[in-house]
Write a structure and sequence with these properties.
It is an enzyme of class 4 (lyase). By secondary structure, this protein is mainly β. It has one domain: Jelly Rolls (Sandwich), CATH 2.60.120.480. It is built from one helix and 16 strands. The strands form four sheets. Strands 1, 6, 8, 11, 13, 14 and 16 form a seven-stranded mixed β-sheet that branches. It has a five-stranded antiparallel β-sheet with strand order 2-12-7-15-5, with no helix packed on it. A two-stranded antiparallel ribbon has the order 3-4. The protein binds (2S)-(carbamoylamino)(hydroxy)ethanoic acid and nickel (II) ion. (2S)-(carbamoylamino)(hydroxy)ethanoic acid is lined by residues 73, 80, 124, 126-127.
Length: 161
């Protein structure tokens, strides 16, 4: 019998151990462009180690809930940010590291327009849109090596509302 992980709303506080929430909540840090634009300045901890920053586009298939979570992964050499290019919420799954393996996963639902930046080495589920288009800009490390560690659960979890 799989354990069910319940999806919670994404908040910056709850996500802080895993990464940064990118959104335009609250007042902007700067007003620019002759007063016509709010700049939410420098809102993520980016880390690319010995590599460099790259921007890629992901076109991902939407998933249905309940989701079977068979694995999580992490990028030991760099952070990874997912910035939606649609106005649809998506599913974010992370897990704490416990002696080099993922602990109990946590699932969050973004609000429309929110993005996330996984800090370097954070265990996370792969990109999981819940609505089409699953179109995202991804800022992560370009460099030598796989920069990928996968962990497959003996007993997959179910993720649901
Ligand atoms: N593999 C890849 O580029 N994407 C994953 O890292 C992911 O988190 O979706
Ligand atoms: Ni990843």
């Amino acid at each position: 019998m799989s354990e069910t992980i319940r999806i919670a709303p994404l908040t910056a506080d709850a996500f802080a151990p895993f990464g940064d929430v990118l959104d335009v909540s609250g007042a902007p840090d700067k007003i620019i462009n002759q007063g016509l634009c709010g700049r939410y300045h420098d809102r993520a901890v980016l880390d690319f180690g010995t590599g460099r920053a790259g921007i890629s586009l992901f076109d991902a298939e939407p998933r249905r809930l309940p989701l079977t979570l068979e694995m999580v992964e992490r990028h030991p050499d760099g952070s990874q940010a997912f910035l939606p290019m649609s106005h649809e919420p998506f599913l974010v799954v992370v897990a704490p590291d416990v002696n080099g393996q993922p602990g109990p996963p946590r699932a969050f639902l973004t609000t429309a327009g929110q993005g996330v930046n996984y800090h370097r080495g954070t265990w996370h589920g792969v990109l999981t849109p819940l609505h089409a288009p699953g179109l995202f800009a991804v800022v992560d490390r370009i460099g030598a090596g796989d920069n990928l560690e996968e962990f497959w659960f003996d007993r997959p979890y179910l993720i649901d509302v």
